Task: structure prediction
Amino acid sequence: MALDQSFAGRSYPPTEPYEVGREKIREFAEAIGDANPAYTDPAAARRLGHPDVIAPPTFVFAITYRAAEQVIRDPGLGLDYSRVVHGDQRFAYTRPVHAGDRLAVTSTIESVRSMAGNEIVDVRGDVHDEKGEHVVTAFTKLVARKQEPATGSEGDAR
Amino acid sequence: MTAGIAYADVEVGTELPAASFPVTRATLVRYAGASGDFNPIHWNERFAREVGLPDVIAHGMFTMAEAVRVVTDWAGDPAAVVEYGVRFTKPVVVPDDDTGALIEVTGKVAARLDDEARTVRVDLTARSAGQKVLGMARAVVRLA
Result:
């Protein structure tokens, strides 16, 4: 099934704000085994110049991916969600996410294309804080594979 | 947003301290809960095999999170990372035993980008079971 190319460039309305909690950051830092005190100790974070504990660099993916999911599940786009794997991921930060942030994500489909039978969708998630200031942008490449997964060599199926 | 490593002290080729990160099934269950990614390929062997995987695999985002620790541990302040990207090339296969898998990460300074902003590009490699599991793993880091 061919994807609807007209979706390229399409933006979706910003998500309801996600409120970043200290304990959620702690849970994430513990899950990746990272004992950096900037993630759990407000005083340590403040010594580095941050207003509160900060989140590890990839923490924000949980927020941006939830927003991207709404986009790629848009029935009009025609993506076979069951065949989607995560191809690439990139983040560009203006500042780190910190506890107390209320973050909204605006998702944009950057490109839609077919390559060697795979369908590739690039989604950009621009993350802004309550004041409307940019925090981070997530660039997520999703690949719907041609056939049923068979080799297990294609990375992280989602 | 400054780091502990001085830009002036870093050259192209400077190696970052390498690190290894063990990952077991328990690690993946914990990461699933913390990240909200409950895809069964990360905890259900039967499901993973049904979709053609050799076994349960780690979340790609988990591997991405571990790899950048080599950079944040080196820089001191995680906020020194201004850009970070990877390609997921091979899965980290996590067997159902007490050892699990190991993600081995190395990094080195590949370029000095901007004298004014004091930014460098760090190229990372991440291996598991002898195979590269990330491609194009790069971070832009702002140094002191």
Notes: The beta strands of chain B are 15-23, 81-88, 101-114, 119-128, 131-132, 134-142. The domain at 7-142 of chain B is CATH 3.10.129.10 (Thiol Ester Dehydrase; Chain A).
